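dude i think i finally got it to work??
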Amino acid sequence: METEKTPAFCEICRNDTAYKVTETSLCGTLKGETYYYQGKEARCMACGSLVYVPEINDANLKSLYDSYRRQNNIVPLETVLAIPEKYAIGKRPLSLLLGWGEQTFSRYCDGDIPTKQYSDILIKIYNDPNYYASLLEAGKNNLKSQTSYEKSRKAVDALVGKTGPDEPKISLAIKYLLHQCEDITPLALQKALYYIQGFYYAFYHTFLFSEDCEAWVHGPVYRDIYFRYRNYRFDPIARPEGFDTSSLTAAEKAIFDSVVDNLCCYSGKVLECFTHKETPWLSARGSLPVNALSEHVIPQEAIGEYFASVKNKYHMINPNDIRNYARSMFQSC
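look at this
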Protein backbone atom coordinates (compact mmCIF):
# COMPACT_ATOMS: atom_id res chain seq x y z
CA MET A 1 0.00 0.00 0.00
CA GLU A 2 1.20 3.52 -0.77
CA THR A 3 -0.14 6.97 0.13
CA GLU A 4 -0.33 9.67 -2.53
CA LYS A 5 0.10 13.30 -1.52
CA THR A 6 -1.27 14.60 -4.83
CA PRO A 7 -4.99 15.10 -4.19
CA ALA A 8 -7.85 13.60 -6.16
CA PHE A 9 -11.49 14.65 -6.07
CA CYS A 10 -13.67 12.53 -3.75
CA GLU A 11 -17.33 12.53 -4.77
CA ILE A 12 -18.38 11.62 -1.21
CA CYS A 13 -16.34 14.26 0.62
CA ARG A 14 -16.90 16.71 -2.27
CA ASN A 15 -13.35 17.86 -1.91
CA ASP A 16 -9.84 17.26 -3.24
CA THR A 17 -8.23 14.75 -0.88
CA ALA A 18 -5.16 12.56 -0.47
CA TYR A 19 -5.69 8.92 -1.32
CA LYS A 20 -4.07 5.56 -0.74
CA VAL A 21 -3.34 3.00 -3.48
CA THR A 22 -3.59 -0.75 -2.93
CA GLU A 23 -3.13 -3.83 -5.11
CA THR A 24 -6.34 -5.76 -5.67
CA SER A 25 -7.91 -8.48 -7.82
CA LEU A 26 -10.30 -7.02 -10.40
CA CYS A 27 -12.56 -8.32 -13.11
CA GLY A 28 -13.94 -6.73 -16.24
CA THR A 29 -15.98 -7.60 -19.31
CA LEU A 30 -14.80 -7.44 -22.91
CA LYS A 31 -16.86 -8.67 -25.85
CA GLY A 32 -19.25 -10.47 -23.54
CA GLU A 33 -16.57 -12.38 -21.60
CA THR A 34 -15.35 -11.82 -18.03
CA TYR A 35 -11.62 -11.53 -17.36
CA TYR A 36 -9.80 -11.48 -14.00
CA TYR A 37 -6.64 -9.46 -13.54
CA GLN A 38 -4.42 -7.81 -10.93
CA GLY A 39 -4.91 -4.06 -10.66
CA LYS A 40 -4.94 -1.14 -8.26
CA GLU A 41 -7.57 0.96 -6.55
CA ALA A 42 -7.37 4.43 -4.99
CA ARG A 43 -9.36 5.26 -1.86
CA CYS A 44 -9.91 8.58 -0.15
CA MET A 45 -7.82 8.95 3.01
CA ALA A 46 -10.71 10.75 4.72
CA CYS A 47 -13.73 8.51 4.08
CA GLY A 48 -12.33 5.41 2.38
CA SER A 49 -14.40 5.79 -0.80
CA LEU A 50 -13.02 4.94 -4.21
CA VAL A 51 -11.67 7.95 -6.10
CA TYR A 52 -10.91 8.30 -9.78
CA VAL A 53 -7.25 8.65 -10.71
CA PRO A 54 -6.58 8.75 -14.48
CA GLU A 55 -3.19 7.02 -14.28
CA ILE A 56 -4.58 4.13 -12.21
CA ASN A 57 -7.60 3.80 -14.47
CA ASP A 58 -5.34 3.62 -17.54
CA ALA A 59 -3.10 1.00 -15.90
CA ASN A 60 -6.11 -1.12 -14.92
CA LEU A 61 -7.50 -0.89 -18.43
CA LYS A 62 -4.17 -2.08 -19.82
CA SER A 63 -4.20 -5.02 -17.39
CA LEU A 64 -7.72 -5.92 -18.51
CA TYR A 65 -6.68 -5.91 -22.15
CA ASP A 66 -3.58 -7.93 -21.26
CA SER A 67 -5.87 -10.56 -19.74
CA TYR A 68 -7.98 -10.53 -22.88
CA ARG A 69 -4.85 -11.06 -24.97
CA ARG A 70 -3.79 -13.91 -22.70
CA GLN A 71 -7.05 -15.84 -22.88
CA ASN A 72 -7.38 -15.38 -26.61
CA ASN A 73 -3.72 -16.15 -27.39
CA ILE A 74 -3.00 -12.67 -28.70
CA VAL A 75 0.56 -11.34 -28.66
CA PRO A 76 1.35 -9.31 -25.48
CA LEU A 77 1.85 -5.57 -25.95
CA GLU A 78 5.33 -5.86 -24.40
CA THR A 79 6.32 -8.31 -27.13
CA VAL A 80 4.99 -5.99 -29.85
CA LEU A 81 7.01 -3.09 -28.44
CA ALA A 82 10.17 -5.21 -28.20
CA ILE A 83 10.23 -6.24 -31.88
CA PRO A 84 11.51 -2.97 -33.43
CA GLU A 85 14.30 -2.72 -30.87
CA LYS A 86 15.26 -6.38 -31.24
CA TYR A 87 15.58 -6.14 -35.02
CA ALA A 88 16.67 -2.48 -35.31
CA ILE A 89 13.81 -1.48 -37.56
CA GLY A 90 11.27 1.33 -37.33
CA LYS A 91 7.56 0.82 -36.89
CA ARG A 92 6.58 2.05 -40.34
CA PRO A 93 9.38 0.17 -42.16
CA LEU A 94 8.33 -3.03 -40.36
CA SER A 95 4.74 -2.60 -41.56
CA LEU A 96 5.98 -2.06 -45.09
CA LEU A 97 8.32 -5.05 -44.85
CA LEU A 98 5.39 -7.28 -43.91
CA GLY A 99 3.17 -5.90 -46.64
CA TRP A 100 0.76 -4.28 -44.15
CA GLY A 101 -0.62 -0.76 -44.12
CA GLU A 102 2.08 1.74 -43.22
CA GLN A 103 0.47 2.64 -39.87
CA THR A 104 -0.65 -0.88 -38.90
CA PHE A 105 2.26 -1.83 -36.66
CA SER A 106 2.29 1.67 -35.10
CA ARG A 107 -1.34 1.16 -34.06
CA TYR A 108 -0.44 -2.15 -32.43
CA CYS A 109 2.32 -0.38 -30.49
CA ASP A 110 -0.27 2.13 -29.28
CA GLY A 111 -2.39 -0.68 -27.85
CA ASP A 112 -4.68 -1.76 -30.69
CA ILE A 113 -5.21 -5.52 -30.58
CA PRO A 114 -4.11 -7.32 -33.75
CA THR A 115 -6.13 -10.01 -35.47
CA LYS A 116 -5.26 -13.60 -34.62
CA GLN A 117 -3.49 -13.99 -37.96
CA TYR A 118 -1.30 -10.93 -37.49
CA SER A 119 -0.73 -11.83 -33.83
CA ASP A 120 0.66 -15.24 -34.76
CA ILE A 121 3.04 -13.60 -37.25
CA LEU A 122 4.31 -11.16 -34.63
CA ILE A 123 4.85 -13.90 -32.05
CA LYS A 124 6.83 -15.96 -34.55
CA ILE A 125 8.87 -12.92 -35.57
CA TYR A 126 9.80 -12.19 -31.96
CA ASN A 127 10.66 -15.79 -31.08
CA ASP A 128 12.45 -16.83 -34.26
CA PRO A 129 15.18 -14.55 -35.70
CA ASN A 130 15.62 -16.97 -38.62
CA TYR A 131 11.97 -16.50 -39.57
CA TYR A 132 12.38 -12.72 -39.39
CA ALA A 133 15.53 -12.97 -41.51
CA SER A 134 13.57 -14.76 -44.23
CA LEU A 135 10.87 -12.07 -44.13
CA LEU A 136 13.51 -9.34 -44.31
CA GLU A 137 14.99 -10.82 -47.47
CA ALA A 138 11.61 -11.49 -49.07
CA GLY A 139 10.25 -8.01 -48.34
CA LYS A 140 13.34 -5.80 -48.57
CA ASN A 141 12.13 -4.18 -51.80
CA ASN A 142 9.12 -2.86 -49.86
CA LEU A 143 11.40 -0.71 -47.71
CA LYS A 144 11.85 2.93 -48.67
CA SER A 145 15.58 3.02 -47.96
CA GLN A 146 18.54 0.67 -48.25
CA THR A 147 19.70 1.94 -44.86
CA SER A 148 16.67 0.42 -43.13
CA TYR A 149 17.44 -2.94 -44.67
CA GLU A 150 21.16 -2.87 -43.86
CA LYS A 151 20.62 -1.81 -40.25
CA SER A 152 18.06 -4.54 -39.62
CA ARG A 153 20.12 -7.13 -41.49
CA LYS A 154 23.07 -6.42 -39.20
CA ALA A 155 20.89 -6.81 -36.09
CA VAL A 156 19.33 -10.10 -37.15
CA ASP A 157 22.68 -11.52 -38.26
CA ALA A 158 24.02 -10.82 -34.77
CA LEU A 159 21.06 -12.64 -33.23
CA VAL A 160 21.24 -15.65 -35.53
CA GLY A 161 24.95 -15.90 -34.96
CA LYS A 162 24.69 -16.09 -31.16
CA THR A 163 26.33 -19.15 -29.60
CA GLY A 164 25.94 -21.02 -26.34
CA PRO A 165 27.47 -18.58 -23.80
CA ASP A 166 25.17 -15.76 -24.95
CA GLU A 167 22.04 -17.88 -25.00
CA PRO A 168 19.58 -17.41 -22.12
CA LYS A 169 19.80 -20.18 -19.53
CA ILE A 170 16.12 -20.95 -19.91
CA SER A 171 16.64 -21.66 -23.63
CA LEU A 172 19.54 -23.99 -22.84
CA ALA A 173 17.38 -25.77 -20.28
CA ILE A 174 14.59 -26.22 -22.83
CA LYS A 175 16.94 -27.65 -25.44
CA TYR A 176 18.36 -30.09 -22.91
CA LEU A 177 14.92 -31.17 -21.70
CA LEU A 178 13.67 -31.70 -25.25
CA HIS A 179 16.78 -33.68 -26.11
CA GLN A 180 16.66 -35.90 -23.03
CA CYS A 181 12.91 -36.55 -22.87
CA GLU A 182 11.42 -38.78 -25.52
CA ASP A 183 8.10 -36.95 -25.39
CA ILE A 184 7.38 -33.80 -23.42
CA THR A 185 4.30 -31.63 -23.87
CA PRO A 186 4.19 -27.85 -23.36
CA LEU A 187 2.40 -28.39 -20.02
CA ALA A 188 5.11 -30.76 -18.75
CA LEU A 189 7.88 -28.48 -20.09
CA GLN A 190 6.59 -25.53 -18.09
CA LYS A 191 6.54 -27.57 -14.88
CA ALA A 192 10.04 -28.94 -15.52
CA LEU A 193 11.39 -25.40 -15.93
CA TYR A 194 9.70 -24.33 -12.71
CA TYR A 195 11.25 -27.24 -10.81
CA ILE A 196 14.68 -26.53 -12.30
CA GLN A 197 14.42 -22.93 -11.09
CA GLY A 198 13.31 -23.98 -7.60
CA PHE A 199 15.74 -26.82 -6.97
CA TYR A 200 18.69 -24.98 -8.51
CA TYR A 201 18.13 -22.24 -5.95
CA ALA A 202 17.69 -24.77 -3.13
CA PHE A 203 21.08 -26.37 -3.82
CA TYR A 204 23.15 -23.46 -5.14
CA HIS A 205 21.48 -20.37 -3.57
CA THR A 206 21.00 -18.48 -6.81
CA PHE A 207 18.35 -18.38 -9.49
CA LEU A 208 19.20 -19.84 -12.87
CA PHE A 209 16.51 -18.01 -14.88
CA SER A 210 15.83 -14.27 -14.87
CA GLU A 211 12.41 -14.71 -16.49
CA ASP A 212 9.27 -14.31 -14.36
CA CYS A 213 7.04 -17.31 -13.70
CA GLU A 214 3.29 -16.66 -13.55
CA ALA A 215 0.48 -18.44 -11.68
CA TRP A 216 -1.82 -19.55 -14.48
CA VAL A 217 -4.82 -21.85 -14.12
CA HIS A 218 -2.84 -25.01 -14.91
CA GLY A 219 0.15 -24.15 -12.74
CA PRO A 220 3.36 -22.11 -13.07
CA VAL A 221 4.00 -20.77 -16.57
CA TYR A 222 6.80 -18.84 -18.28
CA ARG A 223 4.81 -16.63 -20.62
CA ASP A 224 7.24 -16.37 -23.54
CA ILE A 225 7.78 -20.12 -23.49
CA TYR A 226 4.03 -20.66 -23.64
CA PHE A 227 3.78 -18.59 -26.82
CA ARG A 228 6.81 -20.33 -28.29
CA TYR A 229 5.29 -23.81 -28.05
CA ARG A 230 1.54 -23.26 -27.76
CA ASN A 231 0.82 -24.69 -31.22
CA TYR A 232 1.80 -28.14 -29.95
CA ARG A 233 -1.11 -27.98 -27.48
CA PHE A 234 -1.33 -31.52 -26.01
CA ASP A 235 1.21 -33.09 -28.37
CA PRO A 236 4.88 -33.75 -27.56
CA ILE A 237 7.25 -31.00 -28.71
CA ALA A 238 9.57 -31.91 -31.58
CA ARG A 239 12.85 -33.35 -30.33
CA PRO A 240 16.11 -31.69 -31.50
CA GLU A 241 18.78 -33.87 -33.08
CA GLY A 242 21.54 -33.14 -30.58
CA PHE A 243 22.75 -31.06 -27.66
CA ASP A 244 26.26 -29.98 -26.73
CA THR A 245 26.53 -30.48 -22.98
CA SER A 246 29.74 -28.43 -22.86
CA SER A 247 27.52 -25.34 -22.68
CA LEU A 248 26.31 -26.45 -19.20
CA THR A 249 28.07 -26.28 -15.86
CA ALA A 250 28.28 -29.41 -13.71
CA ALA A 251 25.75 -27.91 -11.28
CA GLU A 252 23.28 -27.10 -14.06
CA LYS A 253 23.56 -30.57 -15.57
CA ALA A 254 23.07 -32.21 -12.17
CA ILE A 255 19.79 -30.36 -11.61
CA PHE A 256 18.62 -30.87 -15.21
CA ASP A 257 19.31 -34.61 -15.08
CA SER A 258 17.56 -35.07 -11.74
CA VAL A 259 14.47 -33.18 -12.95
CA VAL A 260 14.42 -35.30 -16.13
CA ASP A 261 14.81 -38.57 -14.20
CA ASN A 262 12.55 -37.85 -11.24
CA LEU A 263 9.90 -35.39 -12.46
CA CYS A 264 9.67 -35.59 -16.24
CA CYS A 265 8.72 -39.26 -15.88
CA TYR A 266 5.26 -37.95 -14.88
CA SER A 267 2.72 -36.46 -17.27
CA GLY A 268 2.03 -32.75 -17.45
CA LYS A 269 -1.32 -33.24 -15.68
CA VAL A 270 0.34 -35.08 -12.79
CA LEU A 271 2.94 -32.33 -12.47
CA GLU A 272 0.10 -29.81 -12.55
CA CYS A 273 -1.35 -31.61 -9.53
CA PHE A 274 2.04 -31.29 -7.79
CA THR A 275 2.22 -27.53 -8.33
CA HIS A 276 -1.38 -26.99 -7.23
CA LYS A 277 -0.37 -28.27 -3.79
CA GLU A 278 2.69 -26.05 -3.47
CA THR A 279 2.87 -22.73 -1.66
CA PRO A 280 4.33 -20.50 -4.44
CA TRP A 281 1.45 -21.13 -6.87
CA LEU A 282 -1.22 -21.09 -4.16
CA SER A 283 0.02 -17.83 -2.65
CA ALA A 284 0.30 -16.09 -6.01
CA ARG A 285 -3.27 -17.12 -6.90
CA GLY A 286 -4.59 -15.86 -3.56
CA SER A 287 -8.39 -15.66 -3.49
CA LEU A 288 -8.90 -16.09 -7.22
CA PRO A 289 -11.53 -18.65 -8.29
CA VAL A 290 -10.10 -22.01 -9.36
CA ASN A 291 -10.59 -21.45 -13.08
CA ALA A 292 -9.94 -17.69 -13.12
CA LEU A 293 -7.33 -16.49 -15.59
CA SER A 294 -4.40 -14.77 -13.95
CA GLU A 295 -1.17 -13.02 -14.81
CA HIS A 296 0.02 -12.86 -11.21
CA VAL A 297 3.79 -13.28 -11.03
CA ILE A 298 5.09 -15.90 -8.62
CA PRO A 299 7.87 -13.98 -6.82
CA GLN A 300 11.28 -15.59 -7.19
CA GLU A 301 11.76 -15.20 -3.45
CA ALA A 302 8.67 -17.34 -2.85
CA ILE A 303 10.00 -20.05 -5.15
CA GLY A 304 13.40 -19.95 -3.46
CA GLU A 305 12.03 -20.09 0.07
CA TYR A 306 9.69 -22.96 -0.72
CA PHE A 307 12.26 -25.20 -2.38
CA ALA A 308 14.89 -24.40 0.24
CA SER A 309 12.39 -25.66 2.84
CA VAL A 310 11.70 -28.75 0.72
CA LYS A 311 15.42 -29.50 0.58
CA ASN A 312 15.64 -29.27 4.37
CA LYS A 313 12.46 -31.25 5.02
CA TYR A 314 13.55 -34.16 2.82
CA HIS A 315 17.16 -34.01 4.03
CA MET A 316 18.48 -33.65 0.49
CA ILE A 317 22.25 -33.97 0.16
CA ASN A 318 22.56 -33.81 -3.62
CA PRO A 319 20.19 -33.26 -6.60
CA ASN A 320 19.50 -37.00 -6.95
CA ASP A 321 17.52 -36.74 -3.70
CA ILE A 322 14.81 -34.83 -5.56
CA ARG A 323 13.29 -38.27 -6.19
CA ASN A 324 12.13 -38.42 -2.55
CA TYR A 325 10.05 -35.28 -2.98
CA ALA A 326 8.70 -36.41 -6.35
CA ARG A 327 7.55 -39.76 -4.94
CA SER A 328 5.90 -38.09 -1.97
CA MET A 329 4.02 -35.63 -4.18
CA PHE A 330 2.91 -38.42 -6.53
CA GLN A 331 1.46 -40.38 -3.61
CA SER A 332 -0.48 -37.29 -2.46
CA CYS A 333 -2.00 -36.82 -5.92
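The longest helix spans residues 186-204.
im so relieved honestly
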